[in-house]
Amino acid sequence: MQDRQIEDPEGTGVSRRQLAKFVGLGATLVAANSVMGAGPAAADDDDERQGQSRGNDRARIWRAGDHHVHSEYSGNYDTSTNPPKFIKGADAVYPIVTNAIMAKNFGLTWAMCTDHGGPTHSKVNLEQAYPDLLRSRRLVPEVLQFWGMEFDAPALDHHTLMIPHHDGEAQQLFELESRFAKNDPFPADPGRDTEAKMIEFLTAAQAMPHKPLVLAHHASRSATGLGVYGQDTPKEFRNGNNIAPDIYVGFEGAPGHQAGPLNGGARGGYGNHPTYGGFDQMTARVGGLWDSLLGEGRRWWITATSDSHVHWTRGGSDFWPGEYSKTYVHARQDYADIMDGLRNGRIWVTTGDLITSLDLTASGQGREAAMGETLTVSRRNRADVDIEIRFRPLNGKNGNGERPEVRRVDLIVGQVTGPNANLGADTNPTTKVAARFGPRDWRRSGQDYVIKYTLRDVEGDCYARVRGTSTDEQEPLADGKESPWEDLWFYSNPVFVRIR
Questions:
Q1: If DSSP codes are grouped into helix, strand and coil, which group holds residue 455?
Q2: 3-class DSSP state of 64
Q3: Using one digit for the tens of pLDDT, what is the confidence trace for 311-324?
Q4: Are 400 and 487 in contact (CB under 8 A)?
Q5: pLDDT at residue 487 in the model
Q6: Looking at residue 228, what DSSP letter applies?
Q7: Structural domain boundaries in the chain
Q8: What is the dihedral angle through the alpha carbons of 310, 316, 318, 319, rounded to the nearest 10 degrees?
Q9: Which end of the chain, N or C, is less packed with Cβ atoms under 10 Å?
Q10: Distance between CA 409 and CA 453 in Å, rounded?
Q11: Which InterPro entries does this one have (predicted)?
Q12: Under DSSP, is residue 341 helix (H, G, I), strand (E, B) or coil?
């Protein structure tokens, strides 16, 4: 142990010499490259020009991040003692700062440590993990590192609980975890694992002056078939979003654990019913649950994460943060603005660095709106809506040492018809692929490709969203054991159109 303290004074899991290379002057992450090949961080040096800002805020660009990353504080517990003894590193193995270093290497500018809860974990978070987060923030200032956890949501599967960056962030998480996380009490309390307790949690969070964010993780991992849901159900999403519409705002479109097939497992750890192109069935099925929620006019967003525990080269099922999946947020390099972007749907996601920038805008009658926004046009005039899709391919190689190519882009449109009396509804029959575009349909504009399309005579409220792929699949197929690098997709969040 003494040797480690001398060689690794900050407890990062890498040596002093390596740490100097990693965070000293922004040099390439040599040790990581020796394991898996060069990452994409150096491939696109023009990230400050990606995603040209809209409106008056020119500091907002597309910033890549990951809100679901595990550290050695996802551990185990010796419950033979009271209170239980926490055992570090039993589930995930990397120090918080190691994840931040790797996130930086793979081009992320923000990330979040989301460790598992457990009996009295709220105290472990407060007394052990949080000081390590503060140290990691000092060592890797280029990556904004949010505080939060993988919340043991009552009656549901895990969720991101993201705490706003402020002086009382540690105490705020302690309050929420100790009061509401279903696994925090010791001895266990069955009353914590009810939907009523989840509603109580969201009600309390909604009333806080510093409002957190809540996003569902791997929402269909426990589903046993297409539309046969497990722990997470459409009814619970609707009820939670009704209670806290600016806190409970979405789910992972693409779950983590995408490297599973590289070690013989399933993508996402979806052992009961598979993902589709790496995306959860709730997102991937056109006219499915996501479209059902959007068809009610709900502001319900998707993200993509690593869920990193153990890298696949060490026998795990994971990629490093940013190595494969990225969630891009249109924001300033500022904690509050990134959280605002997540809350308000200025988000798109990609796997395998298929693209590095994506803008979706709807315009008409002199007005314009982008992802997460609403375009309002008058019915008195011809209600044509012009759609512009602008994307930028990777200028370099991705984490697998390849330069992927976009083979097709789909424009998906659905009607917004208002609240559904059936809280369990999981389809929107109005949602269709309005148009498919191949390389002959887009034109080059600088570093970007641009697609233009007009929705003619729009008669009612609707939304538009975009997806693209490196494959020739008309719809994403159920995933098997293929390499995740051969099956890449990107998805936008929607832009809404209101007819008045």
A1: strand
A2: strand
A3: 999 999 999 999 99
A4: no
A5: 98
A6: B
A7: 2-499
A8: 80
A9: N
A10: 12
A11: Pol/histidinol_Pase-like, TAT_signal
A12: helix
Mean pLDDT of 152-156: 98
485 three-class SS: helix
What residues form DSSP beta bridges with 159?
Answer: 151, 216
* Lookup: tokens for 101: 């270093």
The residue type of 472 is: D
For the chain, helix (H) and strand (E) counts, in that order, are 12, 22
Q: Annotate 353-414 with DSSP letters as a single string.
A: TSEEEEEEEEEETTEEEETT-EEEE-SSS---EEEEEEEEE-SS--TTS------EEEEEEE
Residue 49's CB is within 10 A of a number of other CB atoms, namely 13
pLDDT tens, position by position, 224-253: 999 999 999 999 999 999 999 999 999 999
What's the pLDDT tens digit per position in 120-147? 999 999 999 999 999 999 999 999 999 9
Encoded tokens for 166: 């402020």
Tokens representing 359 are: 């803008």
Instruction: Specify the residue for token string 């008309």.
Output: 474
C-alpha–C-alpha distance, residues 332 and 63, integer Å: 8
Using a pLDDT cut of 90, give the percent of the chain over it.
87
pLDDT confidence of residue 58 = 73
SS3 state at 473:
coil
The pLDDT value recorded for residue 377 is 95
Widest Cα–Cα separation across the chain:
77
pLDDT tens digits for range 45-74: 333 333 333 444 778 999 999 999 999 999
Beta strand spans in 227-297 (E): 248-254
pLDDT at 20 over 80: no
pLDDT grade for 15, boundaries at 50, 70 and 90: very low
The alpha carbon of residue 151 and the mean position of all alpha carbons in its chain are separated, in whole angstroms, by 15
**Residue-level pLDDT at 380:** 80
Amino acid (one-letter) located at 240 = G
Per DSSP (E only), the strands in 438-481 are 443-445, 448-455, 462-469
Residue 194 has pLDDT above 60, yes or no: yes
Output the CA–CA distances (angstroms, integers) from residue 444 to 10, 389, 404, 440, in the order listed: 47, 12, 17, 11
Burial of 386 from C-beta contacts in 10 A (0-12 / 13-18 / 19+): middle
If 0-12 CB within 10 Å is exposed, 13-18 middle and 19+ buried, where does residue 408 land?
middle
How far CA 404 is from CA of 50, 210, 396, 401, 487, in Å, comes to 18, 41, 9, 10, 10
Q: What does the angle CA 215 – CA 84 – CA 76 come to, to the nearest 5 degrees?
A: 55
Contacts of 165 (CB under 8 A, 6+ apart): 144, 146, 147, 335, 336, 339
Mean predicted confidence (pLDDT) in 414-418? 98
Half-sphere exposure of 36 (CA within 13 A, CB side): 22
